[in-house]
Here is the input.
Amino acid sequence: MGFRHKDIIGLKDLSKEEIELLLNTADSLNEINSRDIKKVPTLRGKTVVNLFYEASTRTRTSFEIAAKRLSADTINISASTSSVTKGETLSDTALNVLAMKPDIIVMRHAVSGAHEYLAKRVSCSVINAGDGAHEHPSQGLLDMLTMRQNFGTLSGLKVAIVGDITHSRVARSNIYGLTTMGSNVFLAGPPTMMPVGVERLGNVTVCKDMREAVDQADVVMMLRIQLERQGKTLLPSMREYSRYFGLNPDVLSLAKPNAMVMHPGPINRGVELSSAVADCSQSFILKQVENGVAIRMAMLYHVCGGEPSEG
Here is the structure.
């Protein structure tokens, strides 16, 4: 099957077959990243604009590398150095960028729904690189790719997601994607960071404590506390959070012996996980970063109208 979407706004919008297509394409494109000359002419002549209204290291760099490895021309725009500082609206910024005839706009924005708003106003493709506390589809896809490479399948896996669920766009994209692919998702976190009605996001199990979620898990995914989105303090102290919801070797021992440890980054060592866990042999955190380039190559490729056979 082909990819029928002009934009990639969230994993909630994608079918199981479309997610599999993106994962399979990324697996094929991963070979390019191991070559001496890491470049193919697939998107030669295409222009990708990275429009970032929030700070980013991994996502922005990964999208730029992905575009360049497919031979696309890339332009990076940060809100702090653009006309946004002079009061220009998102719509006007996008329309001015569109007048320069880009093919894809990759955007990160602090407001949930900004990408859907943008996609309705521009003719080029829009890829969501994170919007508020809504979704982060490329992170969800690279997480699933990393799990599938390790276990061979996503169906039937027990995936524990622990931390600030309410404010995490990574959690939402993983819930949508993993439940679509047949994984069993277990959530744990402070009650003040667990959204009311989270079960409506997918077939998930909310656990009363972290140990219940981690018990016999295939994957343990830790989340960063989103202090910048909370607006107020939702926990007594970082020390107390680490005591009850931090991943250490003792808690990790409850998971399966071959369990994967994952984290979308950036890591706060000593808060959501200890250095002993972050650097252990079960940690796939750097593998996630590596797979991020291949996934973003696949996303750029398919919104440009690539056919599966060409991947």
Observations:
- Strands lie at 47-52, 73-78, 104-109, 125-131, 158-162, 184-188, 204-206, 219-222, 260-262.
- The chain has a mean pLDDT of 93.
- The chain has twelve helices and nine strands.
